[in-house]
Amino acid sequence: MHVRFISRVLSAMAGPRPVVMSGPSGAGKSTLLKKLLKEFDGVFGFSVSHYHYVTREVMQADVAKGEFLENAEFSGNMYGTSKAAVQAVQAQNLICILDIDMQGVKNIKRTDLNPIYVSIQPPSMQTLEKRLRDRKTESEESLQKRLHAAKVDMEISKEPGLFDVLIINDDLDLAYGKLKDALLEEIQKVRDTNNS
Ligand code: ADP
């Protein structure tokens, strides 16, 4: 009883739970996110990606220690999302949105960040292909790469317990409603804290 109370107080002090939004490219993550940010002003935040803030040696050491949820290297520079950056958003009483891939999801599972795991999936491969083609952002080569990655992502995301919520983005308004339902408790927490 006391332990549960204390752990609730501690988690409230840490701020709202972050939200992981994962799923294949073209599934509709940015579209859903845009609706969310528009409806709930001042509730969500984004972590700042580490880049050039630290030296390469420091960053490599932090990556080795598991301080990063994601990291990548482009043209000789290292980029990454650190656990500390997510906690900084939480400390501002904002729900930190993490748009990360499956590897990032697996990394974050090893931390104590305790996010809500949401997977956004397309209704079918055919629909995904059509949406990606209509979006006109991909070359044929990158389209094929994304479709292949999507197949893998769709399979893995079915793994029991990996995601808290799996949303099939067929009808946009229905999908958005489900996303909102999944986040309502945290949204309410942010608002209550702001009003108290
Ligand atoms: P992601 O951010 O996951 O890569 P987007 O949000 O860019 O995906 O969506 C891919 C494309 O599909 C966009 O052109 C978007 O307008 C369209 N789209 C998203 N959701 C739906 C939906 N429910 N019905 C029809 N088109 C959609």
Structure description:
This protein is α/β, with parallel strands linked by helices and 196 residues long. The protein has a single domain, classed as Rossmann fold (3-Layer(aba) Sandwich). It contains eight helices and seven strands, in the order αβαβαββαβαβααβα. Strands 2-5-1-6-7 form a five-stranded parallel beta sheet, sandwiched between helices. Helix 6 (125-135) packs antiparallel against helix 7. The chain starts with a helix and ends with a helix. The chain binds adenosine-5'-diphosphate (ADP). Adenosine-5'-diphosphate binds next to helix 2, helix 6 and helix 8.
Q: Biggest sheet, strands in spatial order? A: 2-5-1-6-7
Multimerization status: single chain
Biggest sheet descriptor: 5 strands, parallel
**How many domains in all?**
1
The share of residues in helices is 40-55%
Q: Characteristics of this structure?
A:
196 residues; alpha/beta; Rossmann fold; five-stranded parallel beta sheet; two-stranded antiparallel ribbon; 8 helices; binds adenosine-5'-diphosphate
Write the layout of secondary structure elements.
Layout: H1 2-14, E1 19-22, H2 29-39, E2 44-46, H3 56-64, E3 68-74, E4 77-82, H4 83-91, E5 95-99, H5 102-109, E6 116-121, H6 125-135, H7 140-156, E7 165-168, H8 172-195
Parallel strand pairs: 1-5, 1-6, 2-5, 6-7
Antiparallel strand pairs: 3-4
Helix pairs in contact: 6-7
The gist of it:
This protein is an alpha/beta fold. It is built from 8 helices and 7 strands. The two termini are 25 Å apart.
